[in-house]
User: What shape does this take?
Amino acid sequence: MANPVYKRVSTDQQSTDRQHLVLHEAGIEDPVVFEEQAGTSSRPHPLERPKFGELLAYARPGDTVHFSEMFRLVRGTGHVLDVLDVLHTGRLALRIHDGAFSTTDLTARHPRTGELLSTVKFMVQTLAAAGELQRDLQRELTYDGLRAAESKGNKGGHRPAVPADKTDAVRTAYLEGRSIAALARDHGVSRGAIRTAVADLLPEHTAVDQDVPAPELPVTLDMPGKVADFLRTADLEPAERTALDQGVTVRRGQGYTLRVSATPTVHHQLLIRCQPLDSTPGAPAIPAQRKARREYENRVNALVAG
Assistant: This one.
């Protein structure tokens, strides 16, 4: 039986190093790797991605398909069910090695009927795991290369503070004209650590730094489903696409809203992107879509006003 392995990253700036480590630690025997081109968009349905299609064509009944984490392939519970349906039809086993679903047997079948076990229970587990899947997506953006960097001898996290026994030497060197950047390199710490050590020696003009606006913090807004559906087909910037992909679906009767966490600037950019829902030349607006966009507009404007 073969062990096809699937890898994918969302942007050109990411690498599959972390996935390689997770899969290597799993001890997969004779893996056959199918890796999407770097930066393959998460917008297409998983079943439409080229390398995953090649994997499905290659796999034979009884093979086990391996992912480092489920979010490398899917972006929501609907995609999970679609992929599982195809795998089950092809009699393919599935193994997730980290994150959401890594402890769940998603391919268990009844020994006599061959049907999936506890389908209703699985649906509940899928919805319950949505929060964990969301956390995994956020972790991808923040920690994608951390373990890979550590394996190469690089340390992650914040650099240490200036040791107490080195503080006087740092301060003396600074007074003698050594730059903060050079001192940071000399002592293997961050520039912030050097600034802390020499804070009372900094010239008065550094107080201007206190006037620099603080970076924007993410805020969560509910985006109407009709707006989210439109934006998923739009040409978005990476930050906009990431915010949309990480949104959490909340069912509302027959429809849904997408709970999106992003900075106010990104929310405002997304609002601009869905302007065509109001109307475009030669294409009159659909009332329900126009109403949905205006609901989102009111929420964004309230955020800006606040």
In short: Confidence is low (pLDDT under 50) at residues 204-212. The longest strand covers residues 255-262. The radius of gyration is 25 Å.
